[in-house]
Write a structure and sequence with these properties.
With 1241 residues, this protein is mainly alpha-helical. The protein is built from 59 helices and five strands. The strands form two sheets. Strands 1-2-3 form a three-stranded antiparallel beta sheet, covered by helices on one side. A two-stranded antiparallel sheet has the order 4-5. Helix 57 runs parallel beside helix 59.
């Protein structure tokens, strides 16, 4: 074929084949040229070479075409069909063409325009390798700037071609233009749009969109031209625009402007509002006449993408109900866009329902009103639905591989891994195709569900569309699916940008509810999950539903259906319970009907979120049983993601409001799913440890098993399953994306094993009675994991060990409800920890390459049962202490914090706390950590210091002077100074530092106090406590400070009453008892005021009167609070104040009677009322928190009366007589009322 160049009568350049017609290359019709240009680019390099060599041979259209821009005799004008040699390296073609372009100068000659045309065509058709073939962003930017400089705006064909070049290079090479070159290119592009003919606008808008991509923050000065009132994009995006293509391209540009760049300023609020309203208007508008369906779908996708970008930027706050309701309405509308067999009408605005959980009322005792949300109306009734089902039955629908849009695809990628999940991203980012043969039983169930349910899917095909359906219909289905995915991705961003309490007002608009009798099922996210032919869209809907369920515990907490409600209306609690049941039904139906592994994973994750948040203790049983039975076949699914999510669901089941009786029964079910055959191999696979050969083990294990009431005849299948997943080799070949096991490539993939270890840890935490029968086996699993090389497996093994230790401690606590005969024998616990300490635990503690493992191992070591520790061999005890003291010197703050905390646990052990050397070593280690630069280390060290000082007090009370004399006074002084300094630290450190100060000041002996070096430190310590009581610190800190002052007052060796700090200490406590907002702090301050047991400790008469008056005022204000949560402490506060007043009466001197008489005269009735309540509270069953019995309280008041009678009052005073009469009157009333109550009984 021979190609010649010539001009037509209009001066347009034509490529003419010999014997053929001349077709215009740069025609005057914008649409024709765009179509030709697209075709020209697609045909690739070969056609361009033919045209280039033809021009070379002919000397160009005007005889001036040559490679270097010279005349017809230049290089390249040679033999017909000759090809240039291939480029020598990556990017060489681009650089060669860029050099040629750079050598040109602006000219308006025909030959110059022709050469520029050809260079642009060569640049567009250049075969760029992956990564740009060595072409840098700076090279591309410089080339585009040079190209624009060569093209005058009156050369419209070249303007069109340079726009194509900008669009092509930036997209093909994934280049984001730097700010300096962007400024020039944007100015050029905007001017081109304003000056050139309309047929060039489409190419210019495409170039503009490529320039604006992730460059929104850098184009601030051009925003008025683009987004102002008369801005280009605002005008073109108007739905009434006559050119749909230009409208779509303008919206695309606007969406690219809205993309946020981390670290860069976002769009100003006026421009954000313009974009938001534009996108919303487009979504609310109907398709205009003349717009084809594909263009309309692309327009919708661009608007949805723009909205998503605005919401993801974090600056768009949807605070107005109308604004949010309008957005949710259009999102709901397009979630179902083009869904076969469904046509719904959605109101223009969705309005929220009032939620009692979030308006300050109690969610449990409330009987809320009915929910009345805005619901869409289905336009097709039963008859129409049956016709649609019949028409679509058996259709095989196929979705093209690239169906999902960019926005939805990115949302899928972000959502594949949940926050806080331990699953490996490598396993969740690679979808695994192919259905899972989950057994005939589950398939029979699936078919029965499908036949009996209104949710029957249109197609059971594994893929979206069959290959047989091609053409426009298949293409339209693909575009419709992209719109649905875009709407769901935008909805997901909306969920993340609004508060949960706002979101749940729209619960019923998106979450299914149980349909009433004779009424159709409302459309919801589950409609998409069950009916949508695209598995990607189904997965998107399930991810959105998961996001809604995540964090819904407070909202769902009102659900209740344990009793039958027969009323004229449906309570809100029953409505929510009905919704939970319907979610269970629909998700289980979707589970058995789904064949896509990726969507299966999302269904199971959604179920796990539902199980984690629903209040099953308030619902009728059997919901969890159905989930439990349905998930079993998927535990052995061939796709690793499904296996991981199945174990996640099982973990949610055993951690939901644990322990639940329903789950307890499920754990005791017989082994199933083929697990019984592997039960024996589990034990044989575990190493032949010493504990198996120990003769005492069999006896102890038999004793433990016989006494355990939680053990039925059957072993726990879930524990055996998880152990087999962790330690057994994989028996069946699986098509996993990553099959690298940690033990010779024979074990399950790491994410599956990690999830199994998490399930074991959760099961031990929630159902220890069930797990205790496998104590030694689980301990060996933890050992096996810590011996591996994978740090994640090691870490989870240490976490399992910690949970086992914590369960043993909880079971052996003094207040445990487990009978002694049903607890794990201490001998078995000793054997368990001996195995741990002879195993990999010490090595893990010393593994400085993995500090996180060291820290977790410290936590595990701190969970040892104190009774078992004292029975360990001496060398093992020394090993534990030595390791912890050594790790306290670690340079890693995580390890140092864990070691400091573990030492704080050990110092409370009864077998260690009387060892003065251990206590001193621990004190020195803790003090060192208390000065660490890490706040977390200091917080843990302060907690341990508080525990250590508790030990000092216990030793002082039990051992007397001997321990105090042995303990170093210099170390005690050092502890006082360090604790005083720590009381000025952050609140997490301060709360325990003041606790330690109170204990240390209580521990001081007279020979300490008289030493000069102690005097100043004691004064500073007490001043630190006083300032903390009066500070604006958290209530926990102030409570601890009041408690500490009470401890100080217990030390009779301190000069309380005569020291200068006495008035300040009492002043701080009286201020708090009268005015603190927190009633717990008031209670503790009143307790501290009643500690001194001698009158002289209260100081002067004025000091005594101030304390008395403050307590009376506090009693009068004991109900003054605006916080509803504080009311439950009112009775306890009054009890403590009354107790303090009676205590003061017992110590009053003659000089103090005057202030007491004044109270009797002014507030006698109020005080009498509250003291009578205090005396009778035990009789009436009022929970006041007072430890005394009613008889003891009456005795206290009688003793106070006797003390007042024996007081010698100053001559002439009548206060004593008035007070005695007042107290006798109270006792008379109390005695008569008590006798009448006894006679009634």
């Amino acid at each position: 074929m021979v190609v010649d160049w010539q001009k037509d009568s209009m001066g347009q350049l034509k490529a003419t084949t010999r014997g053929g017609k001349a077709a215009p290359l740069y025609g005057s019709s914008g649409r024709r040229e765009r179509r030709h240009s697209r075709h020209f680019r697609v045909t690739g390099r070969r056609r361009l070479v033919v045209m280039e060599t033809a021009c070379s041979r002919a000397g160009g259209p005007e005889g001036g075409g040559r490679e270097d821009g010279g005349g017809a005799g230049g290089r390249g004008a040679g033999v017909w069909g000759a090809r240039e040699p291939p480029p020598p390296g990556p990017g060489s073609g681009f650089r060669r063409l860029s050099a040629r372009l750079g050598s040109l100068r602006p000219a308006d000659s025909s030959s110059a325009r022709t050469e520029i045309h050809l260079l642009f065509d060569q640049l567009i058709s250049e075969n760029y390798s992956e990564g740009g073939g060595g072409v840098t962003a700076e090279d591309v930017s410089a080339l585009l700037v040079q190209a624009c400089r060569l093209v005058h705006l009156n050369q419209e064909h070249l303007v069109s071609k340079v726009s194509q070049l900008i669009h092509h290079l930036l997209n093909r090479l994934q280049v984001i233009v730097d700010e300096q070159n962007l400024d020039f290119l944007l100015a050029y592009t905007i001017s081109a749009f304003q000056q050139c003919s309309s047929w060039t606008h489409m190419e210019i808008l495409q170039a503009l969109s490529a320039l604006l991509y992730y460059n929104g923050p850098r184009c601030q000065k051009y925003l008025p031209d683009l987004l102002g009132e008369t801005g280009i994009l605002v005008k073109l995006s108007d739905p009434s625009q006559s050119d749909p293509d230009r409208s779509r391209a303008a919206v695309h540009c606007m969406a690219n402007i809205c993309l946020s760049v981390p670290g860069q300023p976002y769009l100003d609020e006026p421009y954000r509002n313009v974009c938001f309203q534009t996108f919303l208007t487009i979504l609310q508008s109907s398709k205009v006449s003349g717009m084809d369906d594909i263009t309309f779908c692309m327009l919708l996708q661009n608007a949805l993408k723009g909205l998503q970008s605005l919401l993801n930027g974090g600056k768009m706050k949807l605070t107005q109900t109308e604004q949010l309701g309008s957005l949710l309405a259009v999102l709901k509308k397009y979630m179902f866009h083009g869904l076969p067999g469904l046509n719904i009408e959605v109101p223009a605005v969705l309005y929220p329902a009032p939620l009692p959980q979030y308006d300050g009322r109690s969610p449990i005792g409330q009987e809320p009103v009915e929910m009345n949300p805005s619901k869409p109306i289905a336009s097709k009734r039963k008859k129409a639905k049956s016709k649609q089902k019949k028409g679509h039955q058996g259709e095989e629908l196929k979705e093209p591989p690239g169906e999902i849009g960019a926005g939805a695809a990115s949302a899928l990628g972000k959502l594949t891994l949940h926050e806080g999940s331990t699953l490996g991203s490598a396993y969740l980012s690679t979808p695994s195709g192919g259905p899972e043969g989950s057994g005939p039983a589950s398939r029979d169930r699936a078919s029965s569900y499908l036949s009996s349910s209104p949710w029957k899917r249109i197609s059971s095909s594994e893929s979206d569309y069959s290959d047989a359906e091609g053409g426009l219909q298949s293409k339209m289905r693909s575009y419709h699916a992209r719109v649905r995915q875009g709407a769901l991705a935008c909805f997901l961003s909306t969920i993340k940008s609004i508060e949960k309490k706002v979101l749940y007002g729209y619960w019923s608009a998106f979450v299914p509810d149980m349909p009433g009798i004779g009424s159709p099922q409302s459309v919801s996210l589950m409609t998409i999950s069950l009916k949508d032919p695209s598995p990607k869209t189904r997965a998107c809907a399930l991810q959105v539903l998961s996001a809604i369920l995540d964090g819904s515990k407070q909202f769902l907490s009102v659900a209740e259906d344990t009793s039958d409600h027969k009323r004229a209306f449906t309570p809100f609690s029953v409505t929510i319970a009905s919704s939970i049941r319907e979610l269970h039904r629909c998700l289980l139906l979707a589970l058995v009907a789904e064949s896509s592994s990726q969507t299966l994973t999302q269904i199971i994750k959604c179920l796990a979120n539902l199980v984690s948040n629903a209040p099953y203790n308030r619902l009728k049983p059997n919901l969890l049983t159905k989930v439990w039975n349905q998930i079993k076949p998927y535990i052995r699914h061939k796709d690793v993601n499904v296996r991981v999510s199945s174990l996640t669901l099982l973990g949610a089941l055993v951690s939901a409001q644990a322990p639940l009786p329903e789950v307890q029964l499920l754990l005791q079910q017989p082994c199933s799913s083929g697990l019984s055959s592997s039960s024996g191999s589990i034990m044989s696979w575990l190493s032949p440890s010493d504990w198996r050969r120990d003769a005492s083990y069999a006896e102890t294990r038999e004793e433990s098993t016989d006494s355990s009431s939680g053990s039925s005849g059957e072993p726990c299948w879930l524990i055996r399953l998880c152990i087999s997943v962790v330690v057994l080799p994989r028996g069946d070949p699986c098509s996993d994306s990553d099959t690298s096991g940690t033990v010779g490539n024979i074990c399950e993939p790491s994410p599956v094993r990690l999830e199994a270890l998490q399930v074991l840890a959760l099961l031990v935490k929630g159902y220890f009675v069930t797990a205790q029968g496998y104590l030694m086996e689980l301990g060996e699993v933890a050992c096996r994991c810590m011996e591996e090389t994978d740090p994640s497996i090691q870490l989870h093994g240490a976490k399992l060990l910690e949970e086992l230790g914590t369960g043993l401690i909880q079971q052996h606590k003094a207040d445990s409800t487990i009978a002694l005969s049903q607890r794990v024998p201490v001998r078995l616990v000793v054997m368990f920890w001996t195995m741990m300490l002879n195993g990999p635990l010490p090595q893990a503690l010393q593994n400085s390459q993995h500090p996180t493992l060291q820290a977790s191992s410290c936590d595990a070591l701190s969970s040892i049962l104190p009774e078992a520790f004292s029975s360990l061999p001496n060398d093992r005890q020394i090993l534990c202490i030595t390791l912890l003291l050594g790790l306290n010197h670690s340079k890693n703050p995580l390890v140092k914090a864990a070691a400091a905390r573990a030492l704080g646990v050990y110092v409370l052990f009864s077998c260690l706390r009387q060892d003065v050397m251990f206590v001193a070593d621990t004190a020195n280690a803790i003090l060192m950590s208390l000065h660490d630069k890490s706040p977390n280390v200091r917080a843990k060290a302060a907690w341990s210091l508080g525990n250590l000082t508790d030990t000092l007090i216990v030793n002082m009370e039990m051992s007397g002077q001997s321990f105090q004399e042995e303990f170093s006074g210099l170390l005690l002084l050092k502890m006082l100074r360090s604790a005083t300094e720590a009381s000025k630290d952050k609140d997490k450190v301060k709360s325990n530092a003041v606790r330690a100060l109170g204990n240390l000041l209580h521990f001081l002996q007279p020979y300490h106090i008289i030493k000069p070096r102690f005097t100043e430190t004691i004064e500073e310590s007490i001043q630190a406590l006083i300032s903390t009581v009066l500070s604006e610190a958290t209530m926990k800190v102030r409570w601890n400070a009041c408690y500490a002052l009470g401890n100080v007052f217990k030390n009779s060796a301190l000069p309380l009453g005569t020291a200068p700090w006495t008035a300040q200490a009492y002043g701080a406590l009286t201020s708090v008892v009268k005015s603190c907002k927190n009633f717990k702090v008031r209670i503790k301050s009143a307790t501290a005021l009643s500690v001194p047991d001698r009158r002289e400790q209260y100081g002067s008469v004025e000091q005594y009167a101030q304390i008395w008056s403050a307590l009376v005022t506090a009693l009068q204000k004991s109900e003054d609070t605006t916080d509803f949560l504080e009311f439950k402490y009112c009775a306890s506060l009054r009890t403590q104040i009354c107790q303090a007043l009676i205590h003061l009466l017992n110590l009053a001197s003659g000089s103090d009677l005057l202030c007491i008489q004044e109270t009797v005269e002014q507030s006698g009735d109020m005080v009498r009322l509250y003291i009578l309540q205090y005396l009778k509270s035990g009789v009436e069953g009022d929970d006041t928190g007072s430890p005394q019995s009613p008889q003891e309280r009456g005795k206290m008041l009688s003793e106070a009366l006797g003390h007042i009678k024996g007081v010698q009052e100053p001559s002439g005073d009548t206060a004593k007589k008035a007070i005695v009469a007042y107290l006798e009157g109270i006792l008379t009333i109390y005695t008569s009322e008590t006798e009448s109550c006894v006679s009634l009984l």
